[in-house]
Amino acid sequence: MNLDKIPQIKHTNSDNFFLLCGPCAIEGEDMAMRIAERIVEITDKLKIPYIFKGSFKKANRSRVDSFSGIGDEKALKILRKVSETFNVPTVTDIHEVTDAAMAAEYVDVLQIPAFLVRQTDLVVAAANTGKVVNLKKGQFMSPESMQHAVTKVTDSGNEQVVITDRGTMFGYKDMIVDFRGIPTMKAYAPVVLDVTHSLQQPNQTSGVTGGRPDMIETIARAGIVTGADGIFMETHYDPSIAKSDGANMLHLDHLEKLLTNLVAIRKTVNSLK
């Protein structure tokens, strides 16, 4: 993937990691704009290439009454407004073949969820839009197996592909990150570490996914040290009221300090090459 080919992305010559960051789901225009404004301010200050993340709908839910979205077109229009207002690219995840062309009208990067990354028709549909395709590594897949998902994109004539590691299932209710996977997958495509989803604790008896947000900086630091090209994380100004994945989200107030530390580590890693 060539970052410079992503519309509106900035600071690509900074030699920093790039960042995919925002709320888990688009809950409304005010919240999306508030979060985006703060992240843009921080990433411009630190010269981090930035892509705003927000799901226009959530299809993978623990319970039928879990929040799934505010309406597809409404949420996609909010993503477009974020992009136009703050001059940043955007990413959203898709779940069905028909989502690909629809979402591609509004965003710059199409993300394939981890549970769906083996779905050939979905991956190919995303690739055929010509947008950057972000492949989430399945929690059940080895790093080596992701080369086949990448090949589905490139064989479709799209070289703009990235892999995101979001942890591997460990038992029934926990995730672990095998950092050996980062250099392994970098042989196939640039690699992003999804810090917050890697700290999920799924399959809780309550039907609401848990998490370990206290470990966010630990995992993020390790990702930079082991060569991650990018960092993915979800943030909210009040995770306790977030309608999706609040238990493993980073509070927006803590983002600047974390990113400042990661930039410092990245500079050290770069100096060792």
TrEMBL record:
Organism of derivation: Cellulophaga algicola (strain DSM 14237 / IC166 / ACAM 630)
Family: Belongs to the KdsA family.
Protein name: 3-deoxy-8-phosphooctulonate synthase
Entries under SUPFAM superfamilies matching the protein: Aldolase
Broad class of the protein's primary localization: cytoplasm
GO biological process: lipopolysaccharide biosynthetic process
Subcellular locations according to the entry: Cytoplasm
Cellular component, GO annotation: cytoplasm
Source domain of life: Bacteria
EC annotation from Swiss-Prot or TrEMBL: 2.5.1.55
Catalytic reaction annotation: D-arabinose 5-phosphate + phosphoenolpyruvate + H2O = 3-deoxy-alpha-D-manno-2-octulosonate-8-phosphate + phosphate
Gene3D superfamilies from the UniProt entry: Aldolase class I
Metabolic or biological pathway, per its Swiss-Prot or TrEMBL entry: Carbohydrate biosynthesis; 3-deoxy-D-manno-octulosonate biosynthesis; 3-deoxy-D-manno-octulosonate from D-ribulose 5-phosphate: step 2/3; Bacterial outer membrane biogenesis; lipopolysaccharide biosynthesis
DAHP synthetase I/KDSA domain ranges (all copies): 8-265
Gene Ontology molecular-function annotations: 3-deoxy-8-phosphooctulonate synthase activity
